Structures are given as C-alpha cells and as structure tokens.
Amino acid sequence: VVIEIGELAIRIHSDDPAFLGLLEQRYAGFVRPAPAASSDDSTAVRLELDVDIIDNAVGFGQQDEDRDEDLLVRREGRRWLVERGDFRAEWDPTSARGRVRQTANPYSIDAALRVLHTLLLAREGGFLVHAASVIRNGRAFLFAGLSGAGKTTIARLAPPDATLLTDEISYVRRRQERYDAFGTPFTGELARLGENLRAPLEAVYLLAQGRENNVEPVPPADASRALLRHVLFFARDAELPKLVFQAVADFVCRIPVRRLTFAPDARVWELIA
Amino acid sequence: MSGQRYVARSSETAARKFDGEMIVMSARDSMIFSLNEIATVIWESADGATRLDEIVATKICAQFDVDPDVALADAAHLVEELAGHGILVVSDSPIGAPGPHPESAT
Q1: Which single residue of A170, A207, A229, B16 has CA 20 to 30 Å from A149?
Q2: With contact defined as beta carbons under 8 Å apart, do A206 and A218 qualify?
Q3: Nearest-5° angle of CA A25, CA A93, CA B101?
Q4: What is the per-residue burial (b if ≥16 Cβ within 10 Å, else e) of A40-55?
C-alpha cells in the first residue's frame, strides 16, 4: 500500500493482508497506486516501510496509544529510532527503508507516519503543526491552537465553499518563496479525513476564544514563539531542532500570522482573508 | 570576576533576530528565549574571542545610556543565567568556534 501525504509517498509492506486492508480503509483518499520505477522525484516513493504485525506489544513499555507526548525519537548512528508504548520503529534515511513492529491497529502506524513526515519535512523547510486548515477560493488558511483552542469549531463553522484539509494536524511544505498547505488524514474531533488537496498558504491564524470576533496582526517574533509551540517535533537530536526553528523563522517572515479571537459564530469567517 | 571572562554562543542553539529582538532556541531541550536589545547585543558579540567587559565597554555603553558598572554587573548576571540554560558558554580563556551567527529577519 502506498500512502501519499503532502506529496511524500511511503510504501508500506506487510505480510498481513487484513492489516493492509485496514490501511486502505483508514487512509482512503491518501492511498494511491504504486508509481512506476521510472517515476520522477515528485511522485517517487520516499520510504519503504516494513510493518511486522505482532500479537501484543508487551515489553514495549507503557501502553498509551495515541499519546504523542510519550513518543521517544532519537538517532542512533544513521538510523532513527521511534518508540512508544504500542510500537517500535526504525528508519535509515540513507537506504530509505524502515521497519515498524506493532499490533494490528491504526493508531501506531498513524503515529509512526506523523514522526516520519516531520523528519522528512524538517530537511526541506516544512513542518506539521497542530492546526486546522481549509482551502477557500484557491488559497489555504491555517488555524493553529492547542487542544481546546477551537480548531474543530472553526472548521465546523467554515462556509460551504470551503474545503477541509484537516481539523487537527496541518501539513506545510516550502516551495521556494511560498508555502503550500496539504490535506492530511490526521483527524481531530470531526473524525473526518481531510481532502487530499493542496493550495498556496495565505495566512495563519492563532486561535483564541472570546466574546467577539477580532483579528489582529502578530509580529514575527511573537509569531515564531507561538508557532513553535504548535509545531510537531519529537526528536532528541542536536541538529533537527535547529532545522525546525529555522523553518518556522523563515515561515513567519513570509506568511502573515494573525491572532483570531472568535465567538463560536459563523460570522468569524467574514474576517478570514 | 565574570566581566573578565569570555563568552560564546553555544553550538547547540538556533537563533533569529526579528526587528531587533533575538529569539534563541536551545536545541538541547527546545526552550525558547527572547532577548531584549541589550541582551541581543551581548549575544551577537559573544564570539568567544572578546571578553565580556570589552563587549560592555565597546558595545553596550556605546549604544545605550547606562552606567558602566551597573551594565557590567547586569551583563555578568545575564551571561551566567544563559550559560545555566546551556545557550552561552563562559570561560576564563578564549573559546574557539562559537555557535553560528544568528540570521537577521529584518
């Protein structure tokens, strides 16, 4: 099964057809046919991932599925090692091969994919961020905030002509001087996969709930601090945090960041432009 | 005396200057620091080859209306604090190869 998120394709191999079927269902819209061997860089598979399905994850430590805080990501020589209570994974960027050991559940592979994408994006100025994102009139808007800030609410209030990219984790890639936002299958409370689309990123809104709808610009220094709090990054590493920092610093110099205070009221969308 | 010591940016940091405000991140624990104007001057001057008292005399006192003794005491306190967070290195002798000079966003 090839799962392509943000135009980065990862091919998953497993001996368990039921698990592959589960992936096809879970990532519907993000599964695509395997590209031909001669494909150019934009469509080539970036990583081959072998998934070993095990009966139980006893010995992996505490069983906390779906908790990113418990992820341990570190580099050992050339390999990246990713561990959580419910799975273990490793990835060798040189050979572009990786392996995951997990039970047959969708949460473990979901976390592994999020980590792998953050590692892949960090080297090219992109990132994953806790944010809802939508496309409207051909442009993408991000709404960043921690849990409870209103990501799902703002997505729910979006007008009918808006296309949901995600209500939980947004995907940002740098394209020279501009940035594109992509749909992701990483869902929040809406439990609805985003559309597998992309659009040039127009603006980021830092969400705050209040009595009235209001927008104010956020200076780049404040924007970088705020956005760094929302960017997904897990690795204990000397180099990669610097890359993420520089990626966010570059980003806030090119993309307007605004603070959006809103009441749960669809009129807030009149302020989004 | 801290003022006669050498200071250098740690290589385990990333930094960017926005409109005169330096934002520094420790790569060790991802902590973020915002430096005010004077702290930014010290950070930018922390090349490992210049003593802190020279930085205060030639950069701080030249640019800001401050009492030299107070400025030096404050600077010494600041560098010790930042060194405690691992983003500056302080030494009695010159320090080779400081961390990268921060980019400026303005």
Answers
A1: B16
A2: yes
A3: 120
A4: eeeeebbbbbebebee
CA distance A87 to B102: 38
Q: What is the pLDDT of residues B32-89, one digit of tens each?
A: 999 999 999 999 999 999 999 999 999 999 999 999 999 999 999 999 999 999 999 9
Q: Residue A233 in 3-state DSSP?
A: coil
Cβ atoms A230, A144 nearer than 8 A: yes
Given CB atoms, is B36 within the 8 Å cutoff of chain A? no
Residue A190: the pLDDT is: 63
Query: CA-CA distance, A64 to A72, in Å (whole number)?
Result: 13
| Nearest alpha-carbon partner for A133 in A229, A207, A31, A48 | A207
Whether the CB of B27 is below 8 Å from some CB of chain A: the reply is: yes
Q: What is the mean pLDDT of residues A120-148?
A: 94
Q: Which pTM was predicted?
A: 0.88
Measure in Å the smallest separation between the Cα of A241 and chain B Cα atoms.
5
- Specify the amino acid at residue B17: K
User: What number is the ipTM of this complex?
Assistant: 0.85
Q: Is A22 exposed, middle or buried (0-12, 13-18, 19+ CB in 10 A)?
A: middle
B30: number of Cβ within 10 Å? 17
Distance, CA of B41 to CA of B59 (rounded, Å): 7
How close B32 gets to chain A, by Cα (Å)? 7
